[in-house]
Specification:
This protein is an alpha/beta fold. It has twelve helices and 25 strands. It has two domains: 222 residues, Enolpyruvate transferase domain (UDP-n-acetylglucosamine1-carboxyvinyl-transferase, Chain), CATH 3.65.10.10; 202 residues, Enolpyruvate transferase domain (UDP-n-acetylglucosamine1-carboxyvinyl-transferase, Chain). Strands 23-24-1-25 form a four-stranded mixed beta sheet. Helix 3 links the parallel strand 6 and strand 7. The chain binds shikimate-3-phosphate. Shikimate-3-phosphate binds next to helix 1 and helix 5.
């Protein structure tokens, strides 16, 4: 699917967007924790996107029962308990989702049956040694395609006879890796301690506590005492999953660069996810945040943005894990700012849905921006931006596709972005929102 954009004047009136979809990381975890717990869990504002639906399909193939209402955005799961899954005769398919393959591998290794799990051509390029190595220390054997000293899907996951605890220092600040280990640690009689080099998104830790696991945090140490059934939180009403700040980010940047004010409602404000807001504020953005949560599982609120004069900044090493998914759209914002935008210590970008250092460099150059590539990042000279019509291949990466489209509307230049089906992995109503803001300004071919 390709998107051909003919920019029109839009965004003259202040506009409110109340349907930014549910958080992807939270939706995966809601399905997984709901499935692993005893009892019934209901969630509101679940993300009905391809990535999260693949997690639901896999858990269903393992014997878990879900009821869903896509229009109401609700999902209800009848948990089977830690060991209640049954073997699936088919290879499990995560599609494009790195979160699904890594988190589910931690669970699958602890079952009484072997499994095979894989995904699309992008997943087959995602390194899995980062999970197979720590999980092997706990007794889980994961085999895959061995290449360049790493392991790639399809993964064959052997049933572990006994799960050991361990103390493990994470070599990369990765929520997917720590979550795979934390989920496996639920099956061990022994204590597991993970030491984080830098803090990164903490949704799994919050879910562990919420579901009654024996889990605690001591500084940089995450400690799970193991074997205890999880219990679905007793509640008459569904648990609200805030909207995804990583999806909101596209419209936050749009509202910072053009128009007359955009308000985004119900957006997740977890402090391990919201660094895009502090970075944009440091750049001079006009952003107002109103907290709306009241004892919810995760903080959320409304975000209002207006265009302002922006000045580029250098991202700090410790904030990279807190905005790892927002770097492509921040690169678009930097084109509208004076001075140099510097991203270093971000080699993790190279192993995302695409090599995002290389796809961001390609995106910025196609649009007429001035960018220099480094092994661990890039820098953009905002003073040298000269927007021009462009054609961009997303390389199957949803965040690159959406960044290109927002770039075209913000810069007011015609563009064609090819390979856009991937947007459905995280933001199924993206084009609907674009159409609300810029009617009759694009065609899908
Ligand atoms: C995610 C963690 C991040 C992020 C991804 C979702 C998660 O990946 O990029 O989109 O839900 O745990 P890493 O843990 O590999 O950094």
């Amino acid at each position: 699917m390709n998107c051909k954009i003919t920019p029109v004047e839009g965004l003259r009136e202040p506009t409110t967007l109340s349907t930014i979809p549910g958080d992807k990381s939270l939706s995966h975890r809601a399905a997984i924790f709901g499935a692993l717990a005893l009892g019934k869990s209901s969630f509101q504002n679940f993300l009905f996107s391809e990535d999260c639906l693949n997690t639901v399909r896999i858990l269903s193939a393992l014997g878990c029962s879900f009821s869903m209402d896509k229009d109401k955005k609700t999902i209800c799961v009848e948990g089977v308990g830690l060991t209640g899954f049954r073997s699936s005769s088919n290879q499990l398919d995560v599609g494009n989702s790195g979160t699904a393959i890594r988190l589910l591998s931690g669970v699958l290794g602890c079952q009484s049956f072997d499994s095979t799990i894989s995904g699309d051509s992008s997943i087959e390029k995602r390194p899995m040694k980062r999970i197979s190595e720590p999980l092997s220390k706990m007794g889980i054997v994961i085999d895959g395609i061995k290449k360049n000293g790493n392991v790639y899907p399809p993964l064959q996951i052997k049933s572990a006879s006994k799960l050991s605890g361990m103390t493990y220092e994470l070599p990369v600040a990765s929520a997917q890796v720590k979550s795979a280990i934390l989920l496996a640690s639920l099956y061990s009689d022994e204590e597991t301690t993970i030491i984080e080099p830098e803090k990164c998104r903490d949704h799994t830790e919050r879910f562990l506590s919420f579901y009654g696991a024996d889990f605690r945090e001591e500084g940089t140490h995450l400690i799970c005492s193991g074997k205890k059934e999880l219990k679905a939180p007793f509640s008459d009403s569904a648990i609200y999953l805030p909207s995804d700040i990583s999806s909101a980010a596209f419209f936050i940047v749009l509202g910072c660069c053009t128009g007359n004010g955009l308000k985004l409602e119900g957006i997740g404000l977890n402090p391990t996810r919201d660094a895009i807001l502090s970075v944009l504020k440091r750049m001079g953005a006009n952003i107002k945040i109103t907290r709306k949560d009241n004892g919810a599982v995760e903080p959320y609120g409304d975000i209002e943005v207006r265009p302002a004069r922006l000045v580029n900044v250098e991202l700090k090493k410790e904030e990279i894990p807190f905005l790892i998914d927002e770097i492509p759209i921040l690169a678009i914002a930097s084109l509208f700012a004076e001075g140099t935008f510097v991203v270093r210590n971000a080699e993790e970008l190279r192993v995302k849905e695409s090599d995002r250092v290389s796809t961001v460099v390609n995106l910025i150059r196609s649009m007429g921006g001035n960018i220099e590539e480094f092994e661990d990042g890039f820098c953009i000279d905002g003073n040298k931006t000269s927007f021009k019509p462009f054609k961009l291949d997303s390389h199957g990466d949803h965040r690159i596709a959406m960044s290109g489209i927002i770039g075209a509307f913000s810069g007011g230049v015609p563009a064609t972005v090819t390979n856009c089906t991937c947007i459905n992995t995280s933001f199924p109503n993206f084009f609907e929102l674009i159409d609300t803001l810029f009617p009759n300004s694009f065609v899908i071919q």
